[in-house]
Amino acid sequence: KFKIKKNPNLALPSLETYPDYNEALKEKECFTYKLGEAFIKASKNWYKCGYIKFYFKDVSELKRKFGKKVLK
Which of 26, 48, 57, 60 to pair with 33, CA 20 to 30 A apart? Predict the structure, then answer.
């Protein structure tokens, strides 16, 4: 933080100013991104049967949710 105060040119711009910001927001709503998020969550809870819940519950919910979007 001291370097940024000393030289403001080192500070990064806000995320909204990047040219591909809207594309990134769309990508966060796709099936593979949500599947990856669910897998990471299951990995963090492996000791509470996270992988089993992921396989039987989360994957089914995502297929149901995104299957409807594809059909429309």
Answer: 48
The residue ranges of every structural domain in the chain are 2-71
Evaluate if pTM is beyond 0.70. no
Q: 27 CB contacts (<8 Å, ≥6 apart)?
A: 33
* Angle, vertex CA 28, rays to CA 12 and CA 56, nearest 5: 140
Nearest to 57 by CA among 38, 31, 32, 30: 38
The gap between the terminal CA atoms of the chain, to the nearest Å, is 49
